[in-house]
Amino acid sequence: QIRDLGAWYESLPPPPALKTGPTVDEAKAMALIKPRHCDSCHKEDFSGQGETGRLAGQRPDYLITSMPTFRPAERSGRGMGAVMEVSVTLIDEDIQIIATYLAHKP
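Below the sequence we write its predicted C-alpha cells.
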C-alpha cells in the first residue's frame, strides 16, 4: 500500500513556483549551491530523481525547517550522507537564501 501511495504522489504535477514573496539574487544563491554539488543528487533543475526529493518549487518554510535537521543527523535513511555533509557547512542565513531561491524555481 505504501508503494501505491508513493506512486500516486509521484504522478502528481510538481508544485508551482512562488510568484510572490521575497526573492534573492540568483548569483548569490548559486554561489552557495554550486560548490556543494546539490545538482549531483537533485539534478540541475532541482526536480529530484528516484528517492532524492524535488527542491524546485518547494515551500521555503519547509526547507528552512527541514534542512537544519540533517546537521545533527536527526533524519536518517539511504543517501543521507551527502546532505548531512552539506548541511553542516551552511549557516541559517545560507539556508534562508537557498530556500527562497528554490521556492521560486519552476
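Residues 16 and 57 are 6 Å apart (CA to CA).
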